[in-house]
Amino acid sequence: MSAPALADEAAEALADGTTVAELRADKRVRRRRATLPYVLLAPGIIWLVVFFIVPMWSIVSTSVETGDMDTGFVLSWRWANFGDVWSQWHQQIIRSLEYSLMCTVFCLILALPLAYFIAFKAGRWKNLLMALVVAPFFTSYLIRTLAWKTILADDGWVVHAMNTLHITPLLSGMGWTYSDNSVLQTPFSVVCGMVYNFLPFTVLPIYTAMEKIDPRLHEAGQDLYASAWATFRKVTFPLALPGIVGGTLLTFIPAVGDYTNAVMLGGPKTKVIGTVIEQQMIGTGGNIPYGAALSVLLMVGTLVITLAYIKRAGTEEIV
Amino acid sequence: MAVINWFRKHVIAIVAGLIFFFLLVPNFVVIWMSFNKPSGKYNVKWEKFSFDAWKNPLDDGILHDPLMLSLEIALLATLVATVLGTMIAFAIVRHSFKGRGFVNSVLFLPMAAPEIVMGTTLLALFLNTFGVSFLGFKSILIAHIMFCVSYVVITVKSRLNGMDPMLEKAAQDLYATPWQTFWRVTFPLVAPGIGAAALLSFALSFDDFIITEMTAGNSVTFPYWIWNAVQKGIPPQVNVIGSLMLIITLAGIAIAEVPKWLKTSKAR
Q: Is B256 exposed, middle or buried (0-12, 13-18, 19+ CB in 10 A)?
């Protein structure tokens, strides 16, 4: 250590009212504290980088390969794969976007009153009701999705009730079902299953945002002669907005790639992009580069939406 | 008029009740159909009450291997993800470091990414670096740890944020070393959050299908078995296992919540 640096250190110790030795020990502790967060972060973050970020590059390089299952695939930088997959499967891509958009809208319509009720009206039942919202998760979702086949069966009471109320002709008139006395294997049953499966993902962030709202703000609204609806619109809704944006994001993005509902509750006319990717990636006679190209399209699309959201709202609020 | 007023006052409760019905009815159907005795291979239509499936929950051993594989992967993934995620949560809440924005984004993106994208990207990585033979137990485990970590971080983080930092200061004032402070004060206080995170990881891993299908190769987990069996017909035994999972979870929630609930009701 040079003489001026030593002098500085001595001056610092004098100013702090300690000895040089104590100051040095203190700095050692601080230095250890400065490296500690990186030690804590490293294993998990490296895992995520290696198995989440790096694979994004793998899929891009796979998407520009050519070849077939028998001879193997080679990297030939064939960007035309993207044109191929779009012209072959744009119908399924658009259908997936439609289904997930409808699913998100319905989830939001159901999540708002449910989160509102639990956050403000449930009192000491709050935690129990939130546990009930997530409880279905603990039965395998494929089994629960299959249960909708029983519920929406042609001769079940739900379809009977819908017939009596003349809802089924209305649905088929809108093109959501294909006949007047059956709802399975249609866009209606697929979206119904999706709403059911994704609703908890919409409710959780909205509930978290609403729970932070001071209930006295509602009283203030009422004191100022606002109706219940006006209070909701002008007080609750804006304050819950971060949760609403987060909830819709966490619903829409997983929904775009989902194919389990479309396969289990749908039919040949409800094929979505996830099914195409599944068949191309691991199906017999699939073309892995085509599956990869479709994944890249899906990945870039969702990444753009997510980053735009993070930029607007920040990640700290959700993570 | 009284009816209309009553309705207006309780409309939100009625709507919430209907939505709960929508959320919970499939679970009841799962339990109800576990007592069915289907005449064909498809257990979709109610036919006859029977305890057959409950007496033979593994369907003569057919379900044994997929169930064991799922349990093994879920336990290991939970263990690793809980340790990694808890460490990250402590770093985020208790320390300052450079690159916070990057860390937050890396944690948030896996929760927002479509499962199929995570599955196919990992499959591409494994195929490009190790080849097809790598797919199986190891690749599924790696994938499950990856998507569980973020959920552990948010769960433990919220518990840490809700903790009074004064308790740790008090321990230090009483001449506890940092190590003693951590194990005697901090850790017991955070433990419920870590437990909840582990439970969540276990459920996510055990139930995962899409990412598993992409990375499984020839291995068959429980959800993957169900998926393959859909076309051939699902036996009611699958409903028995689904019902058991729900009952165990509800019992867990009851054990955690009821004492708290009794305490608050006495206080009032």
A: middle
- Could you tell me if A248 and A296 lie in one domain? yes
Residue A55 to residue B124, Cβ atoms within 8 A: yes
Residues A305 and A179 in one domain: yes
In a domain, A149, yes or no: yes
pLDDT tens across A29-70, in order?
777 778 899 999 999 999 999 999 999 999 999 999 988 777
From chain A, the residues in CB contact with B57 under 8 A are: none
- Domain of residue A21 covers 3-63
Q: How far is B205 from chain A (nearest CA, A)?
A: 11
Total count of domains within chain A: 2
Nearest-angstrom CA–CA distance, A168 and A162: 6
Q: Does B195 touch chain A (CB under 8 A)?
A: no
- Say whether both A15 and A103 belong to one domain: no
Task: Note the ipTM here.
Answer: 0.89
Contact predicate A239/A145, CB 8 Å: no
Mutation for testing the A interface, residue in B100, B116, B129, B150 having most A CBs under 10 Å: B116
Residue B246 contacts A, CB cutoff 8 Å? yes
* Residue A173 belongs to a domain: yes
Summarize pLDDT for B9-52 with one digit per residue, the tens: 788 899 999 999 999 999 999 999 999 988 887 888 888 898 88
Residues in contact with A151: Cβ distance below 8 Å, sequence separation at least 6, in sequence order: A158, B25, B26, B29
Residue A224 sits in the same domain as residue A294: yes
Same domain, A55 and A87: no
Which residues, in sequence order, are bridge partners of residue A182? Answer: A179
Kindly report the pTM of this predicted structure. Answer: 0.88
